[in-house]
Amino acid sequence: MTTATAAPPLVRTASGRRGFGRLLRTETVVWLRDASSWFFGTLFPTVILVGVGMAIPGMRDPITDAPPDSPYYGITAVAAFLPTVLATAIGTLAVLSLPVTFAGFREKGVLRRLSTTPMRPQAMVTAHLTINVVTTIIGVALALVVGTVVFDVVAPAQLGVTLLAFVLGLLTMFSLGMLLAAVLPRASVANAVGSLIYFPLLFLAGLWTPGPIMPDLVREIGQYSPLGAVAQALTTGWFGEGFPLLQMVVMVVYTAVLLPLSIKIFRWT
Question: How far apart are CA 64 and CA 77, in angstroms?
Answer without folding.
Answer: 10
